[in-house]
Amino acid sequence: MQTGRAHKGVGMTSDNTRQRLVRRLREKGIHDERVLSAIAATPRHLFVDEALSSRAYEDTALPIGRGQTISQPYVVALMTQAVLAGDAPLGKVLEVGTGSGYQAAVLARVAGQVFTTERIGELLRSARQRFHLLGLHNVLTRHADGLNGWPTQAPFDGIVVTAGGFVPRSLVDQLAMGGTLIAPEAIDGQQRLIRTRRLESGLERQDLGEVVFVPLLEGLD
């Protein structure tokens, strides 16, 4: 785990480099200042292998091992912006698929509490170390099959699914009235990022565009 000066970042991981990423995200349509501030405050280089740290602030997905990736910063920002756009205050958020922990770390800066589940124990242990290093005490983690959500903590004001395929009914049922669920869904042979809001009148869906995520799997590893 990188600590000390590496926490702040130098060279290609410096604050200036991080600010350039924020400017690129703004140019691509990320307009919520809360999201941009969260991206600027989150040291992405701590969430990748040290050998890849010089690429941490490129707007691209990077491998994190076990066949998983850390999502492209634009996609992280887009999902965070979308979940913040609901009517309900973002008190409790569920993330399905902790991975490196980067998405949860960004969410932790705009939400009251983040509950994040990961099926791969090795990845979750590393993510927990990063949350501790960054002092993100409002992130609660669980080694669990994300398809089941986190029923004992429901309902959630927001749910973010970071793997693609389908959204089980169990997750929709854990969404608070007025809450928002963001997930990549398989539609007509491609993954589409879908924003679902739970309203008194039913579910309202909005297509936010094509994305590419690792598949949503069941079980533990």
> What's the overall average pLDDT, rounded?
92
Q: Biggest sheet, strands in spatial order? A: 5-4-3-6-7-8-9
Architecture of the domain at 62-211, according to CATH? 3-Layer(aba) Sandwich
CATH topology of the domain at 62-211: Rossmann fold
Q: Which structural class best describes the helix and strand composition? A: alpha/beta
- H/I helix tally: 7
The CATH homologous superfamily of the domain at 62-211 is named: Vaccinia Virus protein VP39
Would you give an account of this structure?
- The chain is an alpha/beta fold and 221 residues long.
- It has a domain at 62-211: 3-Layer(aba) Sandwich (Rossmann fold), CATH 3.40.50.
- Helix content is 29%, strand content 28%.
- The protein has seven helices and nine strands.
- The strands form two sheets. A seven-stranded mixed β-sheet has the order 5-4-3-6-7-8-9. A two-stranded antiparallel ribbon has the order 1-2.
- Helix 3 (33-41) crosses helix 4.
- The protein is globular and about 50 Å long.
- The model is unreliable at 1-6 (pLDDT under 50).
